[in-house]
């Protein structure tokens, strides 16, 4: 069983920045892939950014150039640096990891972008 605990969400003005953290109960080296999803009210959950065990990253078109996914293997923590935030980035953000054949989710952290 893997436990994931997200933190770092909150209220920020448009153009601001936040960094989300996801602390995992196991070594990041044990995961095939890791990522961040988000779900806005009335919308489906969507992939924001992902990173493989080999370090390959991918991003949703809507966040390219603004968000950066990274990991600290020593701290067993996944990060999502979010810059130039827009109101449409408002959502609950979820951390997820895959340790084949299972996937695991965190509880989510709310990000609200509003003036």
Which secondary structure elements does this structure contain, and how are they paired or packed?
Blueprint: E1 4-7, E2 10-12, E3 18-24, E4 33-39, E5 46-52, E6 57-59, E7 67-72, E8 77-82, E9 91-99, E10 102-105, E11 109-113
Parallel strand pairs: 2-11
Antiparallel strand pairs: 1-3, 3-8, 4-5, 4-9, 5-6, 7-8, 9-10, 9-11
Describe what this molecule looks like in 3D.
This protein is mostly beta strands. Helix content is 0%, strand content 53%. It has no helices and 11 strands. It has strands at 4-7, 10-12, 18-24, 33-39, 46-52, 57-59, 67-72, 77-82, 91-99, 102-105, 109-113. The strands form 2 sheets. Strands 2, 4, 5, 6, 9, 10 and 11 form a 7-stranded mixed β-sheet that branches. A 4-stranded antiparallel β-sheet has the order 1-3-8-7, with no helix packed on it. Strand 5 and strand 6 form a beta hairpin. The chain is globular, with a radius of gyration of 13 Å. The mean pLDDT is 95.
Number of helices: 0
Helix content: under 10%
Strand/helix succession: EEEEEEEEEEE
Name the shape in a single word.
globular
Main β sheet profile: 7 strands, mixed
Give the total of beta strands.
11
Counting helices, strands and paired strands, the structural category is: mainly beta
């Amino acid at each position: 069983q893997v436990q994931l605990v997200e933190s770092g969400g909150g209220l920020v003005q448009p153009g601001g920045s936040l960094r989300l953290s996801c602390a995992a109960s196991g070594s990041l080296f044990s995961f095939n892939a890791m990522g961040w999803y988000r779900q806005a009210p009335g919308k489906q959950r969507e992939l924001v950014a992902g990173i493989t065990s080999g370090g390959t990253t991918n991003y949703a078109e809507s966040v390219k150039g603004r968000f950066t996914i990274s990991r600290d293997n020593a701290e067993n923590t996944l990060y999502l640096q979010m810059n130039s935030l827009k109101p449409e980035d408002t959502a609950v953000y979820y951390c997820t990891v895959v340790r084949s054949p299972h996937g695991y989710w965190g509880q989510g952290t709310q990000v609200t972008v509003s003036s």
